Amino acid sequence: MIGQANRIAAAVSTACLAVLLAGCATVPTGGPTFEGRGGGAQGQVDTFTRLLPAGPQPGWGENALVRGFLKDLGSFEENHEAARLYMTEECADVWQPSDRVLVYEEMDAVRFDVETVEEERAARVRVRTPLYATIRPDGQYVPASPGEAIDVVFDLTKVDGEWRIANLPDTILLSRQDVDRVYRPLNLYYFNRDMSTLVPDPVFLPVSSAVNITEQLSQRLVTMLLDGPTDWLAPAVRTSLPAGTTATVEYSSGNVTVNLDHRAAAADPRRLFGMGAQLVWTLKQLPEIQEFTLRLDGEEVELPGVEDGVLQASSQEWNSVNPAGMTGSPRAYFLRDGQLWSLDVDQREALVPGAAGHGRILVEEHAVSLDETRVAGIMPDDDSVRVAPIAEDGEYTTVLQGGDYTSLSWDGYGNLWVVEDLSAEVAEAEREEDLADDTEPGDTAVGSTERRETDRGEKRQVTRLWLLAEDADPVEVHAPELAGVPVTELRVSRDGTRVAVLTGGADGGQVLVGRVVHGESTVSLQAFLPLARDLVTVTDLSWRGADQLAVLGQKERGAIQAYLVSLNGSGESTSAGAVTGSDMKTITAAPGMPLLSGTEEDTISSSSDRLMWRRAVEGTKPVYPG
């Protein structure tokens, strides 16, 4: 394993049994930060707006019937009882809707083409509309790629003079509005590869008013957690829950009891702790749940060293696997007159010790390790990346050189990620090819042009990504999906399982998130998904929490400002305001900490309430550890 540190917390010798679940603050100001709700609003999961379906109306034509069916398909009550009213009895009896959902923008964007056959006794309605997203059977919400479309056919027949659906797809079609009403964005929690930090796996769960919502969601969350992570995240995470384990869940008056059928886990305190952590962090998103009890094969597990069987949410054991990937209140770091300074939570500034604070070596970009013991910098004078300890005698050591480096980021394993821009090399190679083509004997002008176009149909690598583990040679990261795509920034999640990249030119681009997969001697980035699709451009980004980014972006006809972007892939980016009187150039964020932005006037502004910004200190390029 590359750069894997032995960071499994000592707390794994204890186990979770009964936990007092503290409420989740949207923007915690101190203590442990609790990620959750999949980006949803506070208290969202305990509300549900029931759709009152209209049902088919007498005299409706083919178009109206299918349109009405799509509207009432948003009712999940009694296994889509309302939608079955639009079908023939035979069709209603056999139709089994799948767990896959195709999401479209709105009904006004849906096209209905009707073909009537058999002397007005049968008809076919073709439904087409741009695909907005897909909710996969494992609950993952996946934004659609440009050009993807929904194209399905409904077969209709006359029953007692009224049109009814005789055959239809098993895939559910819902508008974005229906998804917002019927589904709840929540997280499942798994572990990163060294089992030191929990990782959120955003999923969407359907709810109905037929049963208690908390009981319904509790059972569903536990079942999905035992089934394993989404296909997208699975290669990057691990689980403590034994394969094949099943569970029953009981909820009553704020207490949820989970009974697992796998007794063998009780013999391994490390696994037992991990199981409890995954279950509790997953269930604590539901605001009604106040206590949690874990049973193995019906027998309640006892916890040594926990008073009255209750583990406080702020305890060291509980916080040791916090999905935030960091504990306490980290300092921010910024540049002033070539020197690196720190800024604590009370906005007291201090000069960083060692070479970084001396400022004798010019630093263009900088990043501080999560444990705040090392700083990495890009040196423009000799095209190198150097690292120095944050200590009085700390000196810079060159770790990478000879390239045009643009972006730095640290993960929780102590690895440094570096982006290298190859665009100058690509441009020079293309110029040499042009010269060779122009002078090559026997080639006509047309032939040369055609051959160059064919050659350049293969994507050139315009960005190289590096992973630097301590005391190890640099490793080039495999990212085939980014071949030919200029990456201006890369930020790795603090748990080390995902990366957010900013693609495009100097004027900004789009945000993608991909998973990190480690092999024995290789590292690869895979399965990139788009985020912040409602923003026309993004110019900077940072991880705010384990399931949320902070970005500088712009909507159509809007100004550059801060936004919060959920990693669940749905919904609009949430405005976090803008600095008044000065353009925002950079942004940095950390769990439970104020947002910080560097401005064009070489000042740094902060915001704790996500809307009001105020000047904090003079300086440039603020960063939190990571």
UniProtKB/TrEMBL annotation:
GerMN domain residues: 218-305
The keyword RNA-binding belongs to this UniProt entry's keyword annotation: no
Compartment annotation: Cell membrane
Cellular component GO terms, alphabetical: plasma membrane
Keyword Cell membrane: yes
One Pfam family named in its UniProt record: Gmad1
Skewed-composition ranges (Acidic residues): 430-441
Matching HAMAP family: LpqB_lipoprot (MF_01373)
Protein's UniProt name: Lipoprotein LpqB
Source organism per UniProt: Thermobifida fusca TM51
